[in-house]
Design goal:
With 267 residues, the chain is of the alpha/beta class. Helices cover 37% and strands 19% of the residues. The two termini are 32 Å apart.
Length: 267
């Protein structure tokens, strides 16, 4: 029987396109945690003339001289969450890769749970339960079911984490414009268990509010069925752009809705 090993280091990967304000808040949280490296995989606009990272972004993660903290790295990438994740994963140096969306709020003890779960060699991938920054009843119901692992209840906004060597075995993340997280979970489940940590990561409800929580779930279910039936990721992305983002005025209203922030529960 393989002896369990406790990986000592964690690289956080944040794929981002826009979301500057949430990203700054997330980096502030992560820089205070026991992680070792943070890679921001920033997608550049198609017409960007330069691949250089603006120097104004560099000071977001600084530490007093007497306090150790994670190394912050910026990578430019082509647009596409799967492409950005794969690019950053290939450049990561830690034992564990933890993928976090820019609009997430992460619990303070998340790294401890990640290390504990990844010490079990029978677990191929882990993630967190989910809650939202808006108290809508449908969203609370979805949050409850996020504790279970299935193709309908496990998505990338729950903060996937995986050992780097295992991730490399499946070719990192599919370079898809949509459902790269679904395919990633399916690939890793062939190598071991998928385990949910007993704490929740909080995400923004803005997309659900822009489209409507019920309609969003109907669109998600329809896209999952289309994925099962073999519809290509490129076509799924076009369908999502058409039906899953809401009309512009609804998106604007969702962005400006003032809700009372809630801290992600620790237990």
């Amino acid at each position: 029987m393989t002896k369990a090993v406790d990986p000592a280091t964690i690289t956080v990967i944040i794929p981002v396109y826009g979301d500057e304000a949430p990203l700054r808040q997330l980096l502030t949280m992560l820089c205070a945690m026991s992680v070792d490296e943070i890679i921001v995989a920033k997608a550049q606009a198609p017409d960007a003339a330069s691949t250089a990272v603006p120097t104004a972004q560099a000071p977001l993660c600084q530490h007093p001289p007497h306090i150790d903290g994670p190394t912050l790295r910026w990578l430019q990438s082509q647009k596409g969450r799967g492409i950005q994740i794969a690019h950053a994963a290939a450049a990561a140096t830690s034992d564990i890769i933890w993928i976090v969306h820019a609009d997430s709020t992460v619990p303070n003890d998340a790294p401890q749970h990640i290390r504990r779960l990844m010490a079990d060699p029978m677990i191929a991938m882990g993630c967190f339960r989910l809650n939202f920054d808006h108290p809508h009843r449908i969203l609370r119901l979805y949050s409850f079911f996020s504790r279970f692992d299935s193709i309908l209840t496990t998505f990338g906004d729950q903060g996937f984490f995986v050992r780097r060597d295992v991730f490399a075995q499946v070719g990192y993340c599919p370079r898809w414009p949509l459902f790269e997280d679904v395919a990633m979970r399916q690939s890793l489940r062939r190598l071991g268990r998928v385990e949910k940590a007993p704490i929740a990561l909080q995400t923004s409800a803005r997309r659900f509010l822009a489209v409507g929580p019920i309609r969003t779930q109907i669109v998600n279910l329809a896209l999952i069925i289309a994925y099962w039936l073999g519809v290509t990721p490129a076509r799924l992305a076009r369908l999502y752009d058409r039906f899953g983002k809401g009309r512009p005025q609804h998106r604007e209203a969702a962005e400006t809705t003032k809700t009372k922030p809630r801290l992600a529960p620790q237990r």
